[in-house]
Design a protein that fits this description.
This protein is α/β, with parallel strands linked by helices. It is built from 9 helices and 8 strands. It is globular and about 45 Å long.
Length: 232
């Protein structure tokens, strides 16, 4: 894992309130056997394990080592490459797949989406979080290996091509989008500072709950809940 990506993941691990709030936005869809695609350093893995039986994969061995140290032995963590369709487990299907801030790092995102759909049972849910708004793409995105930021319609098209139907779609984190634009576009810095994270932690519990009532016009990310079409 490169330094910029590790630094970003470590910074986000400090955004405890935001991570809990994000989890709350999709918790009702977590059930049964859950696959976490791209666990990183395990920022969400311990919480996911309270909802079902979790398998977590990542292409980076340092990431899986970090994650294993945060979870119990009941959580199965190992190598997996969703683009290449290679995993440490064999012939398994899942009721839920969680893919948070991963798809933008994958060159062939359409192939990765099809592979995730194939790992779902009919009627199973995909929980997807990706960066939104191409106009926000800047130096931070480049530094941490983003191929793209998405539009809402682009995400919908990927899902449809993979045989998935959109259940829910919502932009998240208008507050963070302002900071992302200033840092990555205006000042062209390659990382969010610790001071910015502390300020975000201070203001997010005050401002982000409003997004539970009214969806913002912009955000750093779009959360999508999709369902695999049942066989007729």
């Amino acid at each position: 894992m490169d330094h910029a990506s590790l630094t970003t993941l470590e910074s986000m691990s400090q955004a405890l309130w935001y991570n809990r709030w994000t989890l709350g936005a999709f918790a009702q869809y977590l059930k049964g056997h859950i696959l976490e695609v791209g666990c990183g350093i395990g920022n969400f893995t311990p919480a996911l394990s309270t909802f079902g039986h979790v398998w977590s994969i990542d292409i980076d061995s340092h990431a899986t080592t970090h994650t294993k140290m945060k979870v119990s032995r009941h959580v199965k963590v190992g190598h997996g490459n969703i683009e290449q369709n290679t995993y440490f487990f064999k012939q398994r299907k899942f009721e839920t797949i969680v893919c948070l801030n991963v798809l933008e790092h994958i060159k062939d995102d359409a192939k990765a989406m099809r592979n995730m759909a194939n790992l779902l049972v009919p009627g199973g849910y995909l929980i997807l979080l990706v960066p939104i708004h191409p106009f926000l793409f800047g130096s931070i995105d480049t530094a941490i290996g983003h191929y793209r930021r998405y539009t809402s319609s682009a995400v919908t098209k990927l899902l449809q091509q993979a045989g998935l139907s959109t259940v829910k779609k919502k932009k998240l984190n208008a507050l963070g989008a302002i900071g992302w634009w200033m840092t990555g576009r205006l000042f062209r810095r390659r990382a969010v500072s610790d001071i910015q994270i502390r300020l975000f932690n201070l203001f997010s519990p005050i401002l982000l709950p409003f997004e539970n009532v009214i969806e913002p016009a912009w955000g750093t990310s779009i959360l999508v809940i999709a369902r695999k079409n049942k066989k007729i």
